[in-house]
Amino acid sequence: MPRIEARAPGERRQPSRERGSMSEAERRESAEQHDEDTLVVERRRRVLIVDDDPDFLVMAEAALAAHGFLVERAAGGLRGVFLATQDVPDVILCDLRMPGIDGFVVAEALRADPATQHVAIFACTGRRDLEARAALNASAFDGVLVKPVDWDSAARLLHEIIGARRPYGPT
């Protein structure tokens, strides 16, 4: 009977530990049959984008989706914290200046929650001044993406960060 397995992109099938006392020939035959009967479903890497600019949200979603990410958008900091804690993403991109609660408060709230404290959080900002850099260095952010964002470079970075943080396997 066919089986479905979830694996991260590029992950290889691990040998089963349930083979008991099979002979070597039986193990080879079983492995070959397993490869033929298994439909591999690759788990897409999930990104939450938190920003109050609807144009940036649409552009960022399209750019990251083109690189294979599953993207969710949050229009504002409070919505971002809510969505992140309801369905924990692999990485969060968060604007710094938003009405209501800003990106620094969002990052601190997510770091304080055991469900999201491990998630990579990147600030997205157009600010390049030294004061902003000092604030970011002392913050709960893992890094910064400067607007306008080079989405090809950002996608490579996010794939690397997510791959280093998340163990792969069924979800």
Automatic annotation (TrEMBL):
It comes from the Bacteria. The modification 4-aspartylphosphate is found at residue 95. SMART domains: REC (SM00448). Residues 1-37 are annotated as: Disordered. GO terms for biological process: phosphorelay signal transduction system. Keywords: Phosphoprotein. Residues 46-162 form the Response regulatory domain. Gene3D superfamilies: 3.40.50.2300. InterPro entries: Bact_response_regulator, CheY-like_superfamily, Sig_transdc_resp-reg_receiver. This is Transcriptional regulator. It comes from Sorangium cellulosum. The gene is ompR.
